[in-house]
Design brief:
Number of domains: 1
Radius of gyration: 18 Å
Helix content: 55-70%
Largest sheet: none
Structural class: mainly alpha
CATH class: Mainly Alpha
Distance between the termini: 53 Å
CATH superfamily: Hypothetical protein af1432
Length: 206
């Protein structure tokens, strides 16, 4: 029995979609690499929530959901944030477009696997807790991108950093605040600085 599908070929094109359109970038970031970083950060947020703040979320599922959180963009592209959120009407319409694109991708998945991928792509099948952790990780990674660009002298990202900083603070999330206070400062350091800290640590870790 053959179960031909273009689903995986579409997903492979995530690497061809650049993020932050309309903005000058010192280093271009594509959707595929962004999704991997979001998955790593979402996994960390879930672990932090479980170990320090009484959570019972599945870190592996959260990481996998994060891997798929932007897959609809292989059909829609990455609409610039100022356009996407220009007003409530545009934001609402774009959400509808995202849902249509997500369903089209789900329909592309091999029939035997379709329900499994629907559980990852269809946001209605995610718990509120899972959805928040993925969204928070998404915003955190965008925030880290602004830090990277500003560190390279690109002032184009100044206002974006301020906007994202406000969003993260307004979450009032213990796991997000924990990650920011302990791990985000390292992203402003050079490779020599973070490597030297590891060498200086008696255990080889901080």
């Amino acid at each position: 029995m053959t179960d031909k599908s273009h689903f995986f070929a579409h997903l492979a094109r995530m690497k061809l979609i650049n993020r932050w359109p309309l903005m000058h970038n010192v280093r271009t970031e594509n959707v595929q690499e962004h999704s991997l970083q979001v998955a790593m950060v979402a996994h960390a947020l879930a672990l932090i929530k479980n170990k320090f703040f009484g959570g019972q979320v599945n870190p592996d599922r959260v990481a996998t959901l994060a891997m798929f959180h932007d897959v609809s963009e292989v059909l829609t592209g990455d609409l610039p944030t100022p356009v996407k959120y220009f007003n409530q009407a545009i934001a609402a319409e774009y959400k509808k477009i995202e849902k249509i694109a997500e369903q089209k991708l789900i329909d592309m998945a091999p029939e035997a696997l379709r329900a499994d991928y629907a559980a990852l792509i269809d946001g209605q099948q995610h718990s509120d807790e899972e959805a928040f952790l993925v969204k928070a990780a998404d915003v955190l990674c965008a925030y880290l991108k602004t830090m990277e660009e500003l560190s390279a002298g690109n002032k184009e990202f100044t206002l974006a950093k301020k906007r994202l900083d406000k969003i993260l603070k307004n979450y009032h999330s213990e796991e997000v605040d924990y990650f920011i206070s302990r791990y985000v400062p390292s992203f402003s350091l050079s490779l020599d600085e973070i490597t030297q800290d590891e060498f200086d640590s008696p255990t080889g870790s901080s």
